[in-house]
Amino acid sequence: MQAIIAERWLLQVRFLCDACRLPTFGLVNPVPRLHSRGFGGIKYVPPRSVPRNGPGLPVVRGEKLMKPTVAIQKPLELTDDLLKLRAWRMPDMVAYQHTPDEWWLTPLDDHLPLLRLNRFGLELLTSMDGKTTVAALQQKYGKWVCGPDGQTGRWHLERWSLPGYSLCYFGTEPPAGDRHEAKWDLLLQQIREGWSGQEGFEGEEHLSEFHLHEITKRDGHFDQIETTVSHLFREPSEALQGLTYGRILAKHLRRLGWWTPKPRSIVEVGGGLGYLARELAGELSPSERLGVRYIFLDMTRPFLESQFALAREVGWHASGAQANAERLPLRDASIDLVIDNENLADMTPVKLTRQEVQSDKGDTALHQEAVEWIRRLRLPLGADMPEEFIFNLGPILFMAELWRVLKPGGRAILIEFGIETGWPAPVKLPGHTEYEVQYTHLRHAARWLGFQEQYFALPQFLVIKPDTRVLCTGAAYAIQRFCEAQGKPFAIRAYTERELSKTLGDMLPKLVGCHYHEISDPAWFGLWDFKVLLLEKPGGAPRPSFSETKGFRWYSQR
Ligand SMILES: C[S@@+](CC[C@H](N)C(=O)[O-])C[C@H]1O[C@@H](n2cnc3c(N)ncnc32)[C@H](O)[C@@H]1O
């Protein structure tokens, strides 16, 4: 179950549920669409999307960001109306048989402790098959002790359908119904909104505040608060032909001729923990790295330390500074290559009104800046512009900065999740909200600035084998919690079955419900929503380029 939740979470469940007024308990709000960055699980605390776990809070434990709402935590009252409903346990729930008589389950909210069940508890869970009413379950198990911690069946019935637990669903219709499992999604949405206590847009300053002041630790951040594609593939992976994300990216840049001649100054913006730089170094030869300056710019200071450490370990001549991508502290025409992996959705969003755009007058200085960019770029916003919409101002400012700092002939690669039509939606993560990138707008801006651009879906660019099956990220979070409770390490990654078996050994057969998705399945991390934008500033010196056939190199000038 957690599997489903987490996947959906990441993925992008893109339907509207405004019409859903369900006769349910534990779910209430009508919801806009869900979307995700690769967020894996829901955890108020560690994970950001993913992520994050343990009997308790995950990542940013105890910080204001991730407090669940009181309503979510309050046990249900088993009223007559509720007792009449039927109960369905969540599908694909990952359970762990710790001893012959003890099973563990993971509530969706990492603040909550693992649930330990005995045989009666397990029977209660398996009885939730959609045929049994809550009343019948209450009558049979209500007074029984259902686990080694002494909680009764009633205690469990009062909690399991709450969003924080999300172990079952009470209703009159099956949760899948005819709305594509809308009800499970409602649960998720409610949980996400519980993270911030706010629906939708969270303000223009929110993301910079989060990165500047609220991320105090780097450990666990990308496991527990926000998992990225590059983080899931930071170690060699069967899904990437035994390579890491960074290495495969470097190979493709080589294929495009981006290392010929080698860039002498590389800037990585928003480098997270620094794995990408580490892996790029692994792919390049020592002579390709010789004399190259690798500069990290990141808004989050604790991440910079990790970036420097990993980069220097592998021999990069690395430096950098805390900086905002929207105002790069770099001289004009000074950089050969910029890498920005999964960072655009973190840049400043602006919520504009149609009135502001049509009158060319923004209500604030920031809105005015956005309105002026729209006018200058002649962005085709169309006749169906809504009354209010979110505009990716930060990514546009960043792109203008790229144009300024790149040398003629300089290049940039930008990778992030996003959309091609419509308006950016907020994506709720623990502690912060990101915004889809509207790539049609961004590409339009790139061309207006003068860039030559190319655009791909990420799996297409990396030539990922689409039918490789990997563990759903929700299951990975559940396993991480089970391991944590036993003092064992377990890293969140995109495991194939063989890799998981190698990692877990004897523990694997004791897990029930692990399931694997084809990597191309939108239910796994929404990988196809991640796009690659390649930018090249014209005007460099002619570069020698070559193609290789059977060991011979054919050079040409372009
Ligand atoms: C989602 S993480 C991606 C990290 C890493 N590139 C990866 O793929 O795992 C976003 C990164 O961008 C940084 N960041 C967010 N907003 C930024 C901004 N406006 N300017 C510079 N860095 C920013 C964050 O601190 C973080 O390192």
Q: What report would you give on this structure?
A:
- The chain is α+β, with helices and mostly antiparallel strands.
- It contains 21 helices and 23 strands.
- Strand 8 (293-298), helix 14 and strand 9 form a beta-alpha-beta unit.
- S-adenosylmethionine binds at residues 211, 222, 226, 228, 230-231, 269-272, 297-300, 303, 324-326, 341-343, 346-347.
- S-adenosylmethionine binds next to helix 10 and strand 8.
What are the defining features of this structure?
alpha+beta, 4-stranded antiparallel β-sheet, 23 strands, 558 residues, disordered N terminus, Rossmann fold, 21 helices, 20% strand, 3 domains, binds S-adenosylmethionine
Major β-sheet profile? 8 strands, mixed
How far is it from the N-terminal to the C-terminal residue, by CA? Answer: 55 Å
Number of domains: 3
Tally of alpha and pi helices: 21
Share of helical residues? 25-40%
- The backbone outline, from C-alpha atoms, is globular
Structure class: alpha+beta
Bound molecules: S-adenosylmethionine
What is the CA-based Rg, rounded? 25 Å
Ranges where pLDDT stays below 50 over 5 or more residues in a row are 1-72
The counted number of beta strands is 23
Overall pLDDT metric: 83
Query: Looking at this structure, what is the CATH superfamily of the largest domain?
Result: Vaccinia Virus protein VP39
User: Any guess at the CATH architecture of the largest domain?
Assistant: 3-Layer(aba) Sandwich
Instruction: Write the CATH fold name of the largest domain.
Output: Rossmann fold
